[in-house]
Structures are given as C-alpha cells and as structure tokens.
Amino acid sequence: MTAGPEEIALALAMLKQGGLVAFPTETVYGLGADAFDQHAVEKVFRLKGRPSHNPLIVHVSGPEMAKRVTRDWPTDAQRLADALWPGPLSTATGRPTPNGSPTPSGPARSPSSSPNHPSSPP
Asked: How far apart are CA 114 and CA 63, in angstroms?
C-alpha cells in the first residue's frame, strides 16, 4: 500500500487526537502513537501486551527530533545518525525527556530510529 498525501493527513489527524496508526518501516510494520502523548503511548502498550519496562522505539524525522525525546544525545549518536539516517539504525541514548518518554514507567534509555521508507515524513 502506498501512502499518499490524503492517507498521511488522515494518520496525522488520528495521532493528534490521541489515536494510533499502523505504518511500515524498511524492516517491520509498526503500531504508532504520538510519543509526546502519554495516554496514546499507554494504548500501544496495552494493545501489544508489552511490559511497561520495555521501551518502544520512537520513530523520528532525524537527529533534531531525536534530541527532543532524550536528555542525552552523544557526539557518537550524532555521527551515526548523520551517516546512516534515514535507514535501519536505532539509537539507544540517555534517559528520555520528561514529556518524551516512550514507556509508562520511564526507561533508562530512549531508543529512536529514522526509517527510510517512502511513507516516512521528510
């Protein structure tokens, strides 16, 4: 399935309302929520039956967005992201920011990825 402008607009509207969307990456299909909406993130955990201590990967548009979900963005993470994003690289940097936790219990690490898929935002 190809996601055109109408489908992407619909998905964005659903996310802004606290809803969930399914989306492709280059390796898997994901069930996503707005990572800054704690109630929506909790819905993903409930639907997947995922333990609250097991963090979700936050899909980001690039390093600048990744920096919004973590308190620590090391130089090595920046170098890797510059070289390999978008693409199938996931980072696991420092503790998430208070409003960017991808888990209900707040993990020790904040994983993020910038997929290289035609439907991923630029």
From this structure: 8
pTM, entire model: 0.75
Task: Quick: pLDDT tens for 66-100.
Answer: 888 887 889 999 999 999 999 888 888 876 655 55
Residues 6+ apart with CB under 8 A from 53: 103, 105, 107
Q: Which of 51, 106, 112, 54 is nearest to 87 (CA)?
A: 112
For residue 66, how many C-alpha atoms fall within 13 Å in the half-sphere facing its CB? Answer: 29
Strand order across the 110-114 sheet: 58-59, 110-114, 87-93
Q: What whole-number distance in Å separates Cα of residue 118 and Cα of residue 120?
A: 6
Task: Decide if domain 5-114 falls under CATH 3.30.1360.70.
Answer: no
